[in-house]
Amino acid sequence: MSVMRRLESFVLKGDRVVTLAFVYGLKADSALTGIDESVWWLDPASSLVVEQKNCTDYAHALAGQAQFLVDGSSSASKAGFGGFLRDEVGNIRIMFSGPTENCGAEYAELMAIVTALEVFVEAGWPNNIGLSILSDSHVIIRWISDISLRPWRWWKTFRKLDDLISMIGSVQISYIPRSENKMADLLAREGASRVNLFKAWW
């Protein structure tokens, strides 16, 4: 079964996250900022709150470089993460959303970055394309860049992250303001309510 056919089947079953990918996710000039619950079951496509973006908003993506925007979400009862990858011309090519152990917002953000790297490798992305990961957590970015700051309790997770970065080769991790990371935030919040990780690429 093709990826798009699998996406279609998820949409027919009312899967909210996959509808995001299927209906609006391929548009480089749109950003998903929410879901109107009152019309979700009647018309999933119409329920999506979409903000039209000027294409120059993605100008900070370097030429010849793919860009993964990620986020983590944590509340008192659940945690999740999510992210999506734009290719060098701004089109969404990968998306993931799923639950994680509830160890706080920083851990959820860390798992979002590790999962982005794992999915990037699994999708077989060309190794001649550099990867830029954008996170809205200054704390996580400092932990990744300075080994001495990393919490020992998550050492195995950081070791996996380092191994994946070495495997990919060219990876840059940078900060993005939360106000520009709304779609990844939505995927993270949806992921906290999921049972299993959803991931897809096309």
UniProtKB/TrEMBL annotation:
Identify the domain of life: Eukaryota
RNase H type-1 domain location: 62-193
Its protein name is RNase H type-1 domain-containing protein
Q: Which PROSITE patterns match?
A: RNASE_H_1
Q: Which InterPro entries match?
A: RNase_H-like, RNase_H-like_dom_plant, RNaseH-like_sf, RNaseH_domain, RNaseH_sf
Q: Which source organism? A: Hibiscus sabdariffa
One Pfam entry for this protein is RVT_3
